[in-house]
Design goal:
Layout lengths: L1 E2 L2 E5 L16 E8 L4 E6 L12 E7 L8 H7 L1 E2 L12 E6 L7 E9 L12 E4 L11 E8 L2 E7 L8 E8 L7 E7 L4 E4 L6 E11 L2 E2 L3 E7 L12 E3 L7 E7 L7 E9 L4 E10 L2 E7 L12 E9 L2 E9 L2
Antiparallel strand pairs: 1-2, 2-3, 3-4, 4-7, 5-6, 5-8, 8-9, 10-11, 11-14, 12-13, 12-15, 15-16, 15-17, 18-19, 19-22, 20-21, 20-23, 23-24
């Protein structure tokens, strides 16, 4: 059921009455965002006992065929598991998960269940329907776009649109008041609503633009301007970005290394899956201050190709910790 580009996923009120003692019910709004071969799902976390506590697990499944009549169980048994989802958050928290490796143009049907620690499983949610590669209406303009000075450059931030964010964002920069063309600074995933431009020059005024995109189409950009003082320190942020994202067989990770005063410092870069299991340690070494880039070939420390899914990249540097998520496609 889709209403104003939002699909509602919930259990009927009566469902809780027939669940076993301690089992959990799911009552969640599910906004859906479609990418070229991905669909992002979001819902509100249920509790361990109704709307209180914290559930133990989710099971999300999907299929390219609808339920036949009232045979939800038959559909569920034949559906594809979306893999291991992160543990549920506390009741009432916003949850998100991106299903990847879908076929562009294909319509998919999704349902989800939750469990407590026993485990007792909830009933089935209603079925959410979405087509991969079909944008959810017009592309939106990011709100609350701002540019601010920070140690290391200019920090850009904005608010994720409730709908119409497409595949993510393109971030551009040009010299304010001049005839310079836009320079593409970053291509970011939907969940990344901030970045730092560490390549600015002191004594220069800049104009930034951020636009949602879907394939080759962009929405109307939001604009922010800022003047960088001559004595602005451009030195140290460890914020990490991965390109491309989603990826298949390789990712370039970019970040800045060094201490706050521009000296070399130790940097550790590790890939984890969403259960917290370490997949690959890419780096643990002292690096000079400045822009750095390393490659990950989407393999574990044992040399095995990683499974499709979402992975966390954690960079620990002298200036702090930075985390970003990568989507790996089949």
């Amino acid at each position: 059921m889709i209403r104003s580009n939002r699909t509602l996923l919930r259990l009927p009120r009566a469902a809780r009455a027939w669940l076993a003692a301690g089992a959990i019910a799911l009552a969640a709004a599910l906004p859906v965002r479609a990418g070229a071969d991905t669909i992002e799902l979001g819902w509100t976390a249920p509790g361990d006992d109704g709307t209180t506590g914290r559930a133990a697990a989710y099971e999300l499944r999907y299929a390219a065929t609808p339920i036949s009549g009232a045979d939800t169980l038959g559909w569920w048994n034949g559906a594809t598991s979306a893999g291991v989802l992160p543990p549920p958050l506390t009741a009432g928290s916003a949850e998100r998960f991106t299903v990847i490796g879908l076929t562009t143009g294909t319509t998919y049907y999704f349902a989800i269940r939750t469990a407590d620690e026993v485990p007792n499983w909830s009933g089935f949610s209603n079925v959410s329907v979405r087509q991969a590669g079909a944008p959810g209406g017009p592309l939106a303009t990011p709100a609350d776009f701002s540019a601010g000075l920070v140690t290391g450059g200019v920090r850009l931030s904005w608010t994720e649109p409730a709908s119409g964010a497409g595949e993510g964002y393109h971030v551009y920069r040009r010299t304010a008041g001049g005839a310079s063309p836009d320079t593409l600074l970053a291509t970011l995933a939907v969940v990344q609503t901030a970045c730092i431009d560490s390549s600015v020059v002191g004594g220069t005024a800049y104009e930034y633009r951020v636009a949602t995109y879907q394939g080759s189409t962009e929405g109307t950009p939001a604009v922010a301007s800022i003047s960088v003082p001559v004595d602005q320190l451009i030195a140290t942020t460890s914020e990490v970005h991965g390109y491309p994202n989603p990826a298949r067989d390789h990712v370039t990770l970019r970040f800045r290394a060094g201490t706050a005063d521009g000296q070399p410092g130790r940097v550790r870069v590790v890939i984890f899956d969403l259960t917290g299991r370490r997949i690959s340690q890419l780096l643990d070494d002292v690096l000079p201050a400045g822009e750095q880039a390393i490659e990950w070939v989407c393999r574990s420390d044992a040399g095995q190709a990683v499974a499709p899914g979402i992975y966390n990249v954690i960079v620990d540097a002298p200036t702090g910790r930075s985390v970003t998520q990568l989507a790996i496609l089949p």
